[in-house]
Amino acid sequence: MPTLDFSGLKKGTVMVFNNQPHEIMWSQFVRMQQRKPVMQMKMRNLITGKVVEYSAKSGERIEGADITKQKAQFLYADPSGAHFMNNETYETVDIPRDLSEDKLGYLKEGMDVNLVYFDDKPISIDLPIKVDLKVVSTPPGTRGDTATGGTKQAILETKLVVNVPLFIKEGELVRVNTETGEYVERANP
Q1: Domain 3-64, classified CATH 3.30.750.24, yes or no
Q2: Which residues contact 44 (CB under 8 A, 6 or more apart)?
């Protein structure tokens, strides 16, 4: 695995920390009097999702993580996890429930995504930033409510629950941000 240069510890860089891949979410170079400079970082574990803080010292050996992505099609989810088909080899790829739980609400059958691999094992699902999902259940908005800019809960086709504006009706397509889980806009069918 490649060794990372101290100056290469920037946002978005993936490195090995405690034998697991971590993505740097934030970093800041700090130099104090009479001490070696350090790079303060906030990193997210790509397997567990846990966020940790670490200060790397100048000259410290840091390993870059060998991360690869492969296109796959979502097939279905069950209590054991999410199941995908590799678009090139047509093999079934399984991601355990604990690694895919937070992403299942955004996955529709037949949807293409990128699977993230570390040491030739799938560890995560790389979702598009926005997905279009159909509203299957939401209470009707009452006349005159739209002026207040209020929201109501809607259950989407993947059983994901999001807050939507009062004018959204059952059967409509809505665009949802996969990073925040929030309603973005109506989607054209």
Answers
A1: no
A2: 22, 23, 25, 50, 51
